[in-house]
Amino acid sequence: MNEMMVHRGPDASGECFDSIGRMSIGLAQRRLAILDLSPLGQQPMSTKDQQHRLVFNGEIYNFLELRQELEAEGDQFVSNSDTEVLLAGLSRYGIEFVRRLHGMYAFAFFDRSRGSIYLARDPVGIKPLFYYHGNNSLAFASELRSLVASELFEPVVSQASVANYFAYGSVAQPYTILSDASMLDSGSWTEYAVKDDQVREVERNRWWNPCKPTLRNVNYAVETRRLVTKAVHSHLMADVPVGVFLSAGIDSTIIATVAHERNPNTRAFTVSFESDVAIDESEIAMDTAQKIGMEHVLVKISDEEALSSIQDWFNQIDKPSIDGLNTFVISKAVRDQGIKVALSGVGADELFGGYPSFQEVPQLYYWSRRAAIVPPFLRRMLARGLTFYKPIQVSKKLEDMFSIQSQLSWLAAMRRRLMNQDELKQLGVRFDELGLSPIGLPPQTMTLLPTTSDDVGWAISVVESALYQGNTLLRDADANSMAHSLELRVPFLDQELIDFAHSIPGEIRFPKDGPRKFLLREAFGDVISDVIHKRPKTGFSLPIARWMLKQLRPLCEEGVSYLATSGLVDKDGVKVLWYSFLADPNERSWTRAFSIVVLGHYLKNLDTRKKLALANDAKVC
Questions:
Q1: Pick from 221, 318, 431, 514: CA 20 to 30 A from residue 619's CA?
Q2: Can you give the pTM of this predicted structure?
Q3: If you average pLDDT over residues 327-340, what whole number do you get?
Q4: Which of 455, 470, 502 is the last residue of a domain?
Q5: Which residue, 329, 328, 269, 331, is CA-closest to 294?
Q6: What's the rounded Cα separation, in Å, for the pair 9 and 6?
Q7: Mapping DSSP to helix (H, G, I), strand (E, B) and coil, where does residue 530 land?
């Protein structure tokens, strides 16, 4: 299991074994050395009396303050690592110590005195934690491939996960893609007790939820600037050089400016694509870096370099998603520059209103409530009328929205839908038959969505954070950066900043006539140039659609063919989706076609790994 994750930690490897009765307990970790590069920071880490052990992935940004408090209580430390502080805090206070952590983390904590193993994740799930519990066994890991390598279960693909994947382009927690493997919910911990030669889950606790809006007597722009600045400063904590992903956007401009003020040695990295000037942000990024006096590195990627990365990306996909290739390519480019840690602007859009959904969903909510009183066929006509000049996919999505209950959070979720109901039916997908909600989400995920819409902006922010950010952006950011041994940090998802942002009433955080990211613009107006202020939201994206029609077509059709013969979906539906894209790539979104390509390659690689495991077993015998 540990060897399957060498890419996550190429610097060192550690293992330890223990037992309770006849039950064996093994902990292992791959190290990417960032804090305290000495052997004192290696894991698994144990207390002197061997009563507590820890394996931990991530960073605790307030570990120095926590260390001082623990020292005042009598704890002594031999390293300068946050791991030792986390171990000491858990040993002294138990799992409730997790509420005092500010950071990104997933960990397993073994408490011999209680005979328990605790698994925990940070509030929004920046770091992943997969697990399997069955046949009197418990296994957990940072990646699904490592869990499969335990050989404790047969890696059978879940039909419900496939349906959810096609609906949203990624798999929503707690689902993975495999029937017997789950993902621990973000902001949760769970306790497994080992007793009488049995391992049982005895308690599960979701310890964090978004704050509710509360009007306070503060200057919201000033407080936003203070907390963003504090978060960036804490995220620079490292014993290795830290870089910043710098684009032409507001988020990365703020992070770069604040980071440079704190540490002038911080370098900014901009990735540009040589053959497509439409997505080239290098000129604006270079101008930003020059104005703040920051060292800037421009990394240019050619068509050939990007295309050569795609096969590598298909081969390393741990859990299918249509949205991770950009991060994979960018992370490789930055890691090749010798950087181990990079700051990213992920999270700002969800917290401060960077998406069109903050303007569109309230309008959809208005019309859907009025459409609810008319018969279904009239709702479809209304949807077509409202989208008369839009592509057919937009019209179909609106028809689906108007066909469900007029709940704001449901509409916000469905706006993120990848495929419409007709396309899903072509693939043989039926949500109700698979135990999914009417909008294609796991029942457990539905409990995270707001049930009221007293504050529309807050509700949209919570939905975007829980779904697109939690299931797609953060999963893809972690998997595709760590594929190149690069740790990606996200200052906008600092817990103190998240709690503050969610507490701001919607009319202040997202004023009706204000621009997107109103509060960030107010808070950092002096560091955001007029060009960036006026620039529409964009992002680095590869010309995947163009490649799918030409250079990548053989590779794509290989994935399509594999999926069509998998038995998981209707093979004719797969072919219809693919050939519809080829016939009209402008009208038919490439993302739908790409989703079947990605899943096909994932299934092929999964089968290859299974055959390899069987072959290795045969050799051993």
A1: 318
A2: 0.94
A3: 92
A4: 455
A5: 269
A6: 5
A7: helix
* Number of folded domains that form the chain: 4
451 and 497 housed in the same domain? no
Mean pLDDT (the chain, rounded): 91
273 and 412 housed in the same domain: no
Q: Give the domain extent around 361.
A: 357-455
The enclosing domain of 106 has a CATH number of 3.60.20.10
Which amino acid does the sequence have at 471? N
pLDDT > 90: percent of the chain = 75
Res. 621 pLDDT band, cuts 50 70 90: very low
pLDDT confidence of residue 155:
94
What are the residues whose beta carbons fall under 8 Å from the beta carbon of 147, sequence distance 6 or more? 1, 130, 131, 132, 139, 140, 141, 181
3-class DSSP state of 64: helix
Residues forming beta bridges with residue 160, ordered by sequence position: none
> 282 and 146 in one domain?
no
Amino acid 1: pLDDT: 95
Q: Is the pLDDT of residue 234 over 60?
A: yes
Core vs surface per residue 409-418: b (16+ CB within 10 A) or e: bbbbbbbbbb
Is residue 215 in some structural domain?
Answer: no
Q: At what angle do helices 571-583 and 590-620 cross, to 10 degrees?
A: 130
Which has the closest alpha carbon to 30: 335, 479, 481, 485? 485
CB 528 within 8 A of CB 250: yes
Q: Nearest-CA neighbor of 55 among 152, 126, 124, 127?
A: 127
Of 534, 569, 598, the domain-final residue: 534
